[in-house]
Amino acid sequence: MKIVSTFVQPSSVTSSVKCSLTPEAELGHLVVAKASCIEVSSITAEGLNHECSLEIWGRVLSVKAVPAKDPSASNLLVLLDHPHPKLLLLGYKTQDGVSALSTLWHSDLQDRYARHAEFFTGIVTSAFGEVAVVSCYVGKLKVIAFNEGKVSNEFDVILPELNLLSLAFVETDTETYTLAILHIDHLRRVQLLARDLDIGDADLSITPSRHLQRAILASSSFPDTDNPLVLVPVPSFSLRPSPSGEDVQCLGGVFVLGGRKIIFVEAATIDQQHREKGKEKRQQQRKSSTSERVQRQAKQKEKEREAKKVKSKAAVKWPWSEVTAWCPADDDGRRFFIGDIFGRLSMLTITDTPELILLPIGEISAPTTLSYLSSQVLYVGSHTGDAQILRIHATAQSDIDRDTLPIPSGITTVHPTSLSADPRSSPSLDDDDIEMESVDDKKAGKAGKIVALKGTHIEVLDRFRNLAPILDAVLADTDESGQPQIVTCSGGANTGALNVIRTGADFQELAVLKEFPNVARIFSIRNSFEEQSDTHIILSTLHESHILRIDGRDTLTRLESGSSALATDQPTLALANVARRVQRTGPTGPVSAYADSAYVVQITPKGINLLEFDTILGVFNRVGAGWTPEQGSSKRPREIVAASVNASQFVVALNGGTIILLNLGFDGMLNVVKSREFPGREISAVSCAPLDSSKAYTSYIAVAFWGENNVQLLSLKDQHSLLEPFCTSPSLPALPCSVILHNFGTVAKSKDPNFHPYVVVGLADGSVATLSIQGKELKELKLFPLGAAPVSLNVTEVDGRRMVFASGSRTAVFYWERQRLMQSSVMMKDVAFGASLNATHFPSCQILATSSSLHIGQIRGIDKMQVRSVKLGMQVPRRIAYHSGYNVFGVVCTNVVPHRVGESEMSGSSFNLIDGVMMTDLSQFNCETDEDVTAVKSLSGSSISASAAFCVGTLRAQVGEREPSLGRLLLFEISGPAKDLKLISSREVDGCVYAIDAVNGLIAAAVNTSVDLYAVIHDEESESTTLKRVARWNHNYFVTSLVAKDDRLIVGDGISSVSVLQVKGHGLETIARDYTPLWPQCVEGVKDKGVIGANVDCNLFTFSIADTDGGRKRLERNGYYHIGDVVTKFIPGSLSVQDTQHDLNQTFEPEHVFFTSSGRIGVVAHVSEDVALALTDLQRNMAAVIVGPGDVNHSKWHTPSNARGTSDADQAVGFLDGDFLEQFLTYDNPDTLLKGKSRPERVRMEREKMEEVLEKLQSLH
């Protein structure tokens, strides 16, 4: 059984809308739709404030605002995409300061017998949102009418236009609604027409409406493109008064976007409609005439009218690429923001002449959605780049000497000052433009103006990271920290990027001191106990101590040993500022209290020193004689081996198993309060940290022992008894070398739910043990591996929260979050010790000691994903491989050149070598003009060749080919200290190289329909390297996936299914095949020689190899599960470092990390059989209680689907939903989920055990 959990949620933005969800919202709300959720943010003067989000079990395609019951507020209409198309009406409520979205209405749109809409699937709404029309299938529309926030009517209508490109409501002066329809007719012409929509009769007019001119769009202005055209509704507005002084009204209409020209088609006037009605009547009379000649003339006239080109009221050339998003820039509907596929943003304005003016603004992320917020602030949502909040300025903000956007040389532009001239004048068109554009358009409407501006007029106020689409990825440990990082190939168009992703906290380094190697402990002290800022740092090695004074951001002064009474000739075990004990008069008599003091206590192996800081001289002076251990009759001298200090108490452990508690008397003398002998035992570590940080003393002491591998808690509550042990930990897996008492909560009262006392133990084997103090027991032992080096512990403050800092081979902080103890890795390795530092020049910092230096900085981003983006712009990374020997990445990039609509796209392909640490370019190999790199494989760790580092596969594009017939295999080596790429071998192949892998010292390549094996032959005499094909297996349609696992090859046929081959010598043998039409997208191997993969229908599947009755092998599908996203890559491994030496029977065994086109990153883990049964029962019980928005059943949502939807015969098997199961930890009444609805449904696992299992699952991602 596998379990699927999400590490990074989808980040691709599909739709957005600005609206007011509550009447109280002054500036409104921004609603953003991502692949699997809806996010709501309130708009404030300071920016966006996240209010709530709603997880959707489906793929969100579009979101629109529709009227709520209160006319000043809105509800949300959400469309879910195939294979589960659905409409959701969501309402927004705020109660007790908590905001939430809830389902008000829903409708299932699925039709198993209809064909999916090919060009346009989405929602359009009327001007005020009271009617919405949904296109989901060919030849039909869903119409929804709203009244007082509810659905008053819903019905389907037949749409004669099958190849629908776009829809828009046209403003009319009648009570009916009119839909503008743009479609491709049976002659492959783009046609614009309108139909009337009657809500009362629930019907769409059979004959085209007269409200909009029916015409053909000129193919020269609107050529066939990959992106369909877009209709934009324009409301009515007043035109410039006529020469006679009469007011002239434009009735509105539609813009047609997406071609080489933007045209404005005006709605017909009443007189025009009457004339059109008369023409239709006369035409109908001629067609029904008894004269055949008249009938023929009528039919010929009708054909001529159908072929009539559109007469636009106004037009302007569009100089850039396909339009992908637009939004109105004001409430009047006269200005619009338009963005193209390469992120070039412009503003379109229609004047009152009317005339179209196009103003370039600047470059943004390639938009999928635009939403104007207010005050020239614009939201940009993108699939290929970061989402952005922009402010549009009237003046240039940067690059003032460069064109705002590049405009092709054949297009005429005007200077901004010319806009003040007579707007009725049009810039002339040169001969080239006349040839390319429609002459009809030139005669019918104005040519419009494109303004030539300088500099970018955009200010980026905020950005929201987007990893989509993830085309490829690798796991790499580039800094050898043991903590792998993910490197993804992301982005597209103008936003190509390599994203380096790590889990855990980031350490922002501020200063480095290299003069102090081998520091074992660090202590920061202040001038007095109640001071807030540290002034000195004490460094202790195993043999001596050093004193540093903080004089500035760039100056730390080392104090000589003779200038201070601090002992520097021996190591410091503990050191801290302490309070002065005073006696005050209380209600019942004298009471002990604590006051500010300049005292500092230093504990060394020889004893305890009490010091006082002299603020005038700036030195530490000794107070009293201190305290030294009494030497007994034993020949072995007594010395302190471990120590701990709090504000008023000092605990020392002597060799021989003695522990002593001391405090500071009223006279400033050190007094022994209690002691205890542990005969025959040696103490390794002690802690007297108060569980209540507001108090100056503790009631418990934690003691760790060598040999016995356990920790005891000693009680100080009874003043008359010795230090009595009252609880002992279970046996620990290794020697405890450090221990600390810590309350991870914020309250010290034991009955308060926010009181979380723990004993944290650093072990010698490199792991951390945590135990919860529950009454008189230590429970919930948990182990966190941090490598192999012994772990030291300390308390630090990060982002205002007190946490436990653990350092060893790797570094981590422990804190309380989501009702459980959590660990977050820190991006520093081999840290011997860490301490807090809060100095004037280094506020809220940490100081970390490595073997060679000290590092001062700040820990930031606890429990967050740390992403470092390497922006590549127009270089879009497609494939990536990591070579650990050279610590470099081999990255395949496609270099895209922006083009104008209708022009051929120019692109190039290259193979780039990038440094693994700095992520900078080292070398580049550029392919030939007709060649694209399609695959790359690192040969690190293989026995293929001593010199070859990467193998690259290419495709040669030949004009007119339907199937590629030529490609190349290239071998590269890395030469010289500069790490240059050197081509050492090239071999032509008869097709496209879709995938490459290394197996048994050979190179396996997927070439069109075959799997080929190549041997690398090195001729030492000629010093040449060649590739020789030694085997071919040709039994597929298209081999698009190829993965090597041991001596096996897993083959994914993009049209058929999966095969498993075995490499024997230089030959290939079939082990097993599956023949079902699965359409796999990517495959990978799993343990027990199985297969995991994903297909184009967003399903995960697994296969195991089984025996048939005849003794042959076959692939048996044992897992099938709908994930709702296109998985592009599986990588064997884990996001976190796993150490199994303490848990041989792991509950979850991470197997793969997967990546999707929407930016999702997830984990697939194997579940042990006993736990899998309990989790299956729990998921069944939860699915019966928890339903998704729109009453979507969890089991139905994950049922495997195809283009036609789900089959009643199929069900999800072999996979569990980890994200869904983790909701058990936050469910209000989890016991009901365990009980089920009947006795047989009861989950046979206790609640505490189930919570422990699910917490382990959470730790994997």
Automatic annotation (TrEMBL):
* Source taxon at top rank: Eukaryota
Q: What is this protein called?
A: CPSF A subunit region-domain-containing protein
